[in-house]
Amino acid sequence: MTFAIKAEVSDLRAKAFTFRAQKTMYGGKRVAAGDTIFVFASENEGGPGLIASGVVTSAIPTPRKPGIARQTPRVSITVKRTALAKRRLGRSELKAFSDWHDGRPETELNFKYYRQATNKIVGLSEEAVAFLRGYFHH
Question: Is residue 115 within 8 Å of 95, Cβ to Cβ?
Fold first, then answer.
């Protein structure tokens, strides 16, 4: 499976990224070493949106806290960057795609990342993966 993460990124051109105890939604808790991942630098923290693609080099689930019934699964991951995005893709580019049932990859990304603006790791459809690959020269 292929994933995407939206999180605070301090060095947009880093060769590797570490993300600790990240929320997961839409299948994101299944992220594992060897998976492809697209990295979005969270606009909530001043980032530009999509910045890189990479490979997950480690994924460690965060233990649940005892005594709390409903907890969003969290995972800590490290990512080795494989490519930098060649053009911008963020909230402003995806905002117009809000017909949640139109099946477009842009709508999927807008729904998963910007309908609830929290940072998170999400699983992606094949259509969204193909769309995102268009932002990179391979």
Answer: no
